[in-house]
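Good morning C.,

I know you're traveling, so I'll keep this short. The sequence:
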Amino acid sequence: MVKKEMIAMLLAGGQGSRLGVLTSRVAKPAVAFGGKYRIIDFPLSNCINSGIDTVGVLTQYQPLRLNKHIGIGIPWDLDRNEGGVTVLPPYEKVGKTEWYTGTANAIYQNLAYMESFSPDYVLILSGDHIYKMDYEVMLDFHKAHNADVSIAVMPVPQEEANRFGIVVTDENGRITEFQEKPEHPKSNLASMGIYIFSWKALKEALIALAEQSNCDFGKHVIPYCHEKGETLVAYKYNGYWKDVGTLGSYWEANMELIDIIPEFNLYEEFWKIYTKNDILPPQYISGDAVLDRCLIGDGTEIYGEVHNSIIGCGVVIEAGAVVRDSIIMQNAVIRAGATVDRAIIAEQAVIGERAQLGVGEEVPNKVKPAVYAFGLTVIGEGTVIPPDVRIGKNTAVTGETVPEDYPGGQLAGGEILDKAGDVA
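The tokens, ready to paste straight into the viewer:
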């Protein structure tokens, strides 16, 4: 193997349970985003744009679509003889076999992969954030400070700081304290889950913590390095960064793409976002269609009205249908006369004629109030909604439903209708 100065390890095995039925059949990094992308496209594009050509992608939960999407890495120019992209699922070993049980444990189980490139530095990334970052600039910062560990951080509102790993720094940017989701945060600098380790420091920490159950970077590796007296520095990032871990933040990040001046710009020449492009015909907008402020994927046919929405590839919106403030994923069908308000409709779903989604008052979800919130109606992958039914807000529907599933022709706000066994 050729020696590499820095390789990237991309953690993409998470379930993303707070995305509800959107991740019941697909890993969170493979969830559709922005009409034509998948979430993992963003860190992968950052890697190749930053000159990193060796990326290990660690998969575990529902990896099929993710593996198919990544393939041999052609869209990101990562189909290399030396390095390139390698999918790293858990595998059987002599003596004992185990699933990845934490972020650091997953990296530990792939020491041999990393060793094969004898890197000077290892970049650790999450596969579920939306942002653009030049990792080369962060590496220069790491070298300039002669650091063992660099943690990318960004300021967050003080009242939200208890949701994050928080770092406390001195005037030189050195980390003096690390608090994992503290009750009383001592600063508002939140860890972004992006780390650069000098190889020696990473390897030593992973081996030392090998027996630690559910070994995690924030909870175990970073504190271990800090206690050993290694040099930890905070690399401050001030650009756009979104953890799309909840349905609300996922919906919001999509909607921000269609702002008049989007904070996150997909159209910049110098920092392209690459993805696997299927061979699809052009989109078709009929003479009677009405559209404003939308992103529309290839192969989509629109005969109805679409306002302020993200429409994926291969979607059909029939005449008389009205879609507002919604995300419609690829190959979904909105039948004639249906109205869709503030909804997320997953791939291959079919919304029946004259069905109404997102009606009535907003009430908390009865089963999972923390997941199905934000006034959204969420329709799972491949779900069928029959004609003429009314579905309220903060609801989830999954599976092939029939009129008899809707007493009085409706699903009240705050209810879940699960015909596919997708709601754990």
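Safe travels,
E.
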